Amino acid sequence: MILNQILDTIDIGLVILDKDFKVRYWNRWMAMHSGIAFQEIKGVSIFEFYPHLKNKKLLRNFKAVINLGNHYFFPQKLYGYLFPFRPESNFVKDINHMQQSCTMGPLRDDEKVIQYAYISVKDVTEAYIYETNLASALLTLLEKYVEKNDMPAEEAQSILDELLPTSGGEVMAKHSKPPKDKDTHAVIGDQLVDILSEIASGNR
Question: What CATH code would you report for 2-124+184-202?
Fold first, then answer.
């Protein structure tokens, strides 16, 4: 009961799926943003509510999580979102879906056997908007320098790489090659994984 209360108050979405993709846990954050109550989706295949998730890449990653214990990351820059939720802020314009950074990983039982996979969902919409606006402003400024030959395109790109490693890729594309993807995402903490495992076992 206490563990459920903790996971229902954190500002992050948490989903637990069994090996058949059936939902075993769906915290309050997910229910609030999806409009789907836990009791409604509990024991039901996630694909019945989100058929777009049934794609080759996610299925392959899920299999590796269950069979090999791998962790996979779905950064906003590459995926935009996994769950098509509306942006939380009323001040968000020109964005139809919440931008998300997601993680998928294994959950083990008391015998250390993988029984479930979790998906964590973090809302990064505001950070995405801020970074996009900042990138646009830097683009305008640096392109003026490049076009006037006051700065080499490579130097401008270097500045963008340093200040905006997740947004600078296309800023100077017409002047030089885009930078490498430098996104880094940490896996969920061991303590939280243990908590999720307990809840998954309790909701079988």
Answer: 3.30.450.20
pTM of full prediction above 0.85: no
Higher local confidence (pLDDT), 53 or 184: 53
78: tokens are 């590459």
Each as own residue / partner, the long-range contacts of residues 74-81 (CB below 8 Å, 24 or more positions apart, any chain) are 74/100, 74/101, 74/102, 74/103, 74/104, 75/101, 75/166, 75/183, 75/185, 76/100, 76/101, 76/124, 76/128, 77/166, 77/167, 77/181, 77/183, 78/181, 78/183
Q: Where are the domains of the chain?
A: 2-124+184-202, 128-170
What span, in angstroms and rounded, lies between the C-alpha atoms of 104 and 76? Answer: 14
